[in-house]
């Protein structure tokens, strides 16, 4: 089954216009700017959804360009040609090796054939499979049920030597029945089975201070999506109003290990040009 991401533009339109991103950045500003980004292997990755329109046309050619930009890691998603873009998992791994890159994780349809997907991911040294989107739920009980399902998925992955994680959008940082769904999910998942990928664009867009969540749940956010916010849309890193030098310093202190660039809109540029500009920003970044 093809995996389809939600319409980000529609979601972005629902945000309150008064989100004070500079306030979030200001609360993090004391982190300083003294050292280079030092994630796993001192590197950073790209979520391939950023190139969703280009990849189907020439997967190998596009991946070669990604490698030439300086990315050493990639995070996949389950598209029309599967997680491995028409290749077997081992063929994909060999091609990644040739390019000097590693596929560390993938978003996927975790409710379908997870055992098979986890076997294939483990066989090529991937670290994570994850739920990319749950969607707003009508009650906290439904988020608790999702947490139970995440634990089951985490057990399947753990048995194969990999990890399971959940990737947030804005809805989990907006209260339902007086509580944040993100709290409910994190408090009802076993830390030995389930990790979290913090999408730093969406948490800031929801008006939350990421640093508070790093402190509240140390070492639970093992991966992060790095994308900037201009107005109510994503923009090329460094052109928006998220203070990443400070934010990523806090993320590293909180135990984040993988920093995955993602780009969703491309006003005034192209997906590949944006991926290159984002890589240039990450290479220059000092935190």
Automatic annotation (TrEMBL):
One Pfam family of this chain: AP_endonuc_2
An MF annotation (GO) of this entry: isomerase activity
Keyword Flavoprotein in annotation: no
Taxonomy, superkingdom: Bacteria
Residue ranges constituting the Xylose isomerase-like TIM barrel domain according to the UniProt record: 63-284
InterPro entries: IolE/XylAMocC-like (IPR050312), Xyl_isomerase-like_sf (IPR036237), Xyl_isomerase-like_TIM-brl (IPR013022)
Keywords, sorted A to Z: Isomerase
PANTHER family (UniProt xref): HYDROXYPYRUVATE ISOMERASE, INOSOSE DEHYDRATASE
Protein's UniProt name: Sugar phosphate isomerase
